[in-house]
Write a structure and sequence with these properties.
With about 475 residues, the chain is α/β, with parallel strands linked by helices. It folds into three domains: about 120 residues, P-loop containing nucleotide triphosphate hydrolases (Rossmann fold); about 60 residues; about 280 residues, P-loop containing nucleotide triphosphate hydrolases (Rossmann fold, 3-Layer(aba) Sandwich), CATH 3.40.50. It has a seven-stranded mixed beta sheet, with helices on both faces. It has a seven-stranded mixed beta sheet with strand order 8-10-11-12-9-13-14, with helices on both faces. It is elongated and about 85 Å long. About 35% of the residues are buried. Bound molecules: adenosine-5'-triphosphate (ATP). The site of adenosine-5'-triphosphate has 22 residues, from helix 11, helix 16 and helix 17.
């Protein structure tokens, strides 16, 4: 892609990457002379690393390019000099001259901090993380040194890592196991990503652990068929929003979806990406989304979007949330990666209206308090999980209780007995009655209901569900 821009005569490119040396190698191509500048070495030939000019001053380096036709000057860390007026002026003066002699400046930077004076002069692009082929080649290099056989599956397991990180993961596997193990590489990757604070890997949960929510389960099973090779022509669902009070199983539904698809589950914790430094939060968001894109098939669980994006558009936001929000929405719209976003929210009044715009999500589901048959299913699950003995009829006493509260009851009953444990728990529905009713009211016209309704005869529910599944359009008619 960068080559296309060079061929088209773009004089100033800005490539956002945390892998400058990999970028240098990728950028090199026939037709131009390539030079690299950094403030320690000065100017060197990119391919041979041979120093040719001891120009350490950034202004001089920028002006040096004006004398060289058909050349590309790749700069490292030039972004650190953006506060110097002469650098800005040098770029402004240089752009028309570079263009006239067929030369270009490529600025490699980990952060996008172009000043307004030169912003429009640069074409900005992201360097994608290594793809399958690059990772395999990298592994083959290590394999040669260690005299072990390369392994494509283990090579792919490093997707989402930088070249250096992938190299470290492969080397670790070679040292620990004497071969390239998918498990070791995946584990190393999970550690690296967790340490970077960008993303977390979670274990999917079997759908059998999710009680009730039949309407939601049906929808997910139905729509995710589009990801199977036989149904490749069907439109792929991209995002589902789950709204409801805490503890009703929204997060669990995301985990169960990953298990249903057999895909990895990645948690994107937007609040954790926030940083007080200007522009840093947005950079971290872009970085995290880049990893997700490189990763391929995955369920991306975005928990509590309402809290993450609260304040967008208000006076209290310094622009941090708005910037991250914009980046996230653009990515959701434009990404071509086979990912399914599962976003959850408790309080829709905090969500920016653009987030709920029709077409943004394939469906918005309201997850209510479990109905009686659902409570019975949850009791069954908890009795099995914890060895508690809550009778199924006890579901009658648990109207307005969330799945999380029933789980708490099951655990407490093991120590205190059922009656005492029951008396000690005050369900949220008692303290949040008004909020829950307001949410239900909102959902009535804007969302689908995830739950199996209370007391509805099984037969009529089946008929209703069957009718809904026959809907031809992938979009939600209620939202449109
Ligand atoms: N429908 C359910 N079936 C089985 N377990 C449930 C169900 N709902 C909740 N639970 C139990 O409660 C726990 C908490 O639920 P979960 O985290 O999914 O709720 P949530 O709606 O995402 O809450 P929050 O809005 O606070 O994130 C789950 O890990 C699970 O053990």
């Amino acid at each position: 892609m960068i080559l296309d821009y060079l061929k088209a005569g773009y004089p100033a490119l800005c490539v956002v990457t945390s892998e400058p040396h990999r970028a240098e190698n990728i950028i090199r191509c026939p037709g131009w002379k390539f030079f690299t500048w950094d403030c320690l070495t000065g100017i060197r030939e990119t391919s041979t690393l041979k120093a040719i000019e001891e120009i350490r001053d950034p202004v001089e380096a920028i002006r040096w390019l004006e004398r060289l036709p058909d050349s590309v000057l790749v700069t490292l860390n030039l972004h650190l000099f953006m506060e110097i007026p002469e650098v800005i002026q040098g770029i402004q003066n240089g752009v028309p001259k570079w263009k006239s002699i067929g030369s270009s400046l490529i600025m490699l930077t980990p952060v996008l901090n172009l000043r307004p004076e030169i912003e429009k002069l640069f074409t900005v692009m992201d360097l994608p993380l290594p793809n399958d082929g690059e990772l395999y080649d990298l592994q083959c290099d290590i394999a040669k040194h260690c005299h072990i056989k390369p392994n494509r599956k283990a090579a792919r397991a490093a997707k989402g890592l930088t070249e250096l990180e992938a190299e470290a993961a492969y080397a670790l596997s070679a040292v620990q196991k004497g071969f390239f193990s998918t498990k070791v590489v995946s584990h190393a990757k999970a550690q690296i990503l967790r340490k970077s604070g960008l993303l977390e890997f979670w274990e999917p949960t079997s759908i059998k652990e999710l009680g009730g929510l039949d309407e939601l389960k049906m929808f997910i099973k139905n729509r995710t068929k589009a990801f199977t090779p036989d149904n490749d022509s069907l439109p792929k669902p991209k995002a589902i929003l789950l709204v409801g009070v805490p503890g009703t199983g929204k997060s669990l539904s995301s985990k169960a979806t990953a298990s249903l698809l057999g895909w990895p589950l990645i948690r994107l914790d937007i609040s954790a990406l926030k940083n007080s430094l200007v522009g840093e939060s947005e950079r971290r968001m872009r970085e995290a989304l880049k990893v997700i894109d490189a990763f391929g098939q995955s369920v991306v669980w975005v928990d509590e979007v309402d809290k993450a994006f609260a304040g967008v558009g208000s006076n209290t936001d310094s622009g941090t949330s708005a910037g991250m929000f914009g980046t996230f929405l653009t990515w959701m719209q434009e990404t071509e990666s086979p990912v399914l976003v599962m976003a959850t929210a408790n309080n829709i009044s905090q969500l920016p209206p653009e987030f709920l715009r029709a077409g943004r999500f394939d469906a918005t589901f309201f997850v209510d308090m479990p109905s009686k048959p659902e409570r019975q299913e949850i009791i069954r699950i908890m009795n099995k999980r914890y060895g508690s003995e809550i009778p199924l009829e006890f579901a009658d006493n648990l109207s307005g209780w969330t799945g999380a509260e029933i789980e708490q009851l099951a655990k407490d009953s093991l120590f205190d007995g059922l009656d005492k444990a029951y008396a000690a728990i005050v369900p949220l529905s008692r303290t949040m009655r008004e909020e829950i009713n307001a949410l239900r009211e909102w959902a009535r016209t804007r969302a689908r209901f995830a739950n199996t309704p209370d007391g509805e005869p099984e037969e009529s529910r089946k008929v209703r569900t069957a009718k809904r599944i026959k809907l031809p359009s992938p979009s939600n008619p209620i939202l449109n």
